[in-house]
Each structure stands twice: as structure tokens, then as C-alpha cells.
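subagent[fold] <- orchestrator: predict structure for attached chain, return C-alpha cells only, no commentary.
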Amino acid sequence: MPVVLDIGEPRLGQALTPADEAWRVLLGEGISWCGGERLIVLNACSSSLDVAWYLRARGEFDPWDAVLCGSQWAGRGQLRRSWSSPLGNLYAAVCLPSLPPAWRALASLVVGYGVRHGLGCAAVRLKWPNDLVLEDRKVGGILIEERDATLVAGIGVNLAVAPERLRQDAALPAGILSVPGCSLVAFWTQLVRGLRLCYESIPAAWEPATWCHYLASLLAWQGQWVEVKDYRFSVYGILRGVAEDGAVLLQGPEGEVIRAESGSLRPLSVHSEYMRRPPHGANFR
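subagent[fold] -> orchestrator:
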């Protein structure tokens, strides 16, 4: 299918034209998309997720169709936090096929794993539940939204600009993932190829528990003291992995298994008394 450069709704997305600065960043020397799925490329939009859901409501956004934009004026991340979206970084949304029931709670991690594979950077780690980390800096994020049994993944990667200021309670500073110079469409072609391969092959080849055990080695701060907190609670422990239902697993000071199904995860740098005591053993399989 051809690349679509206008959705006909300027309140959500601005059409991309050769006169726009974003044309070169997004398309390079010209349109080179050869995928069979629909690719919507816009100069700017409220957010790639907003455009995706708008097109889905019109019946024009099928599995593996995607939206790319040069910038966003209302980008959002986890808990609907604002997402800084200057020109040069990747802002995309892609419609995902349904996962088997046993895998649905792991959707964010499966997508994160697939994005990491598409990036081709072995040093990137997955920060539970939905961030990409390189050298203790956040270089990307993933937001899964579901409506009427349809999954759409919003994917952002800092390729040119890292926000200088994040919210006060941010777990990490922002960083940039350096990649060879290419258009964002060319970059997306590589990324979505890896994402699709993993998204389709993992549920067919693995049991959720076995895959989660394997995934543990790719988690940021695996085996280190971390904190998980939100407005309701705060828990501390050694990061040991994730469960089949997507919960993060910690080993507490007394060796107990601690589960957290939501919250923000961060490394602990304050070495309190209980952090200096080796915890007792616990089974995390």
C-alpha cells in the first residue's frame, strides 16, 4: 500500500508536504516504503496514538498498519504523562494482532522485547513495565492501549533529542540511542520487522513461564536492589524477574517474594541497613 501523508483531519494531524522540515527527517530523499501495510506519515499530530484510534474508528487501521509523525503536541506516556516530542525522534503507533489469552498480560514486555530486537542494540535493557534503557538512561518508551479488543502500541525512541528536564520523580535521566543516519521511515522499517518477528514467533514457540525466566536476563537492574512505588505503596527488594501475569518479582530483605502489578521501578542507591544484609533464598520460577 502507498504511504498516506494526510488523514483529512487537521485538528488531529497536519499533512506532510515537501516544504516541511519534517519531510527530510521522515522520508529522506523520497518515499521508500515497500511494506504491504498502510503507513501514515504526518508532519505533526496531537499524538500518534490519537491518530491511530481515529483511523481505527473509520475502519482504516488494520493489524500492522502504523502512524509516524515528525512531532507531537500532546504526546503521552504511562499514566497519561506528557511525552516531549521534538522533531528528530521516533513517534509511532502500530496496530497489533490479538495475542493468545495466556500472553495478553505480557503484551508490553513482548512488544518491548520485539522493539529491542528491531533496534539491534544488545546493550539496551527493558525497564519494567514499558521503557527502554541504555547505560542507565531512558532512551525510549512503549505504551499499550486496548479498546474493543484492539491493541495499539505507542512507541517512542530518542534518536536525536533527549529532554533536558523530566518530571521530578522520574526514575532515570533521558538519553539518546545513536543509530546510523537514515530516514525515520527506514528506521521504522527495520524496527517493525524485528517487532513483528518476535511478536508472532514468541507465543508460538514458548510457554509464558519459560519466556519470563529467559527475559529476566534482559531486565534493567536484574539482581540489584530496586524500589517499586506508586501513589498507594512503596516496596523494596532485589529484582528477580517477572511473573506470567506481568507482575514484577522482588526478593525482600527476609527472602520473601514480593509482587508488584503496577508502579514505577527505579534502582536504589541509598544503602540502608537491610540492603547490606544478604536476603534468604526464595523460589522465583
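orchestrator: received. Logging for downstream: The chain has two domains: 3-207, 221-276. Helices lie at 21-27, 48-57, 107-119, 184-205, 208-215, 273-276.
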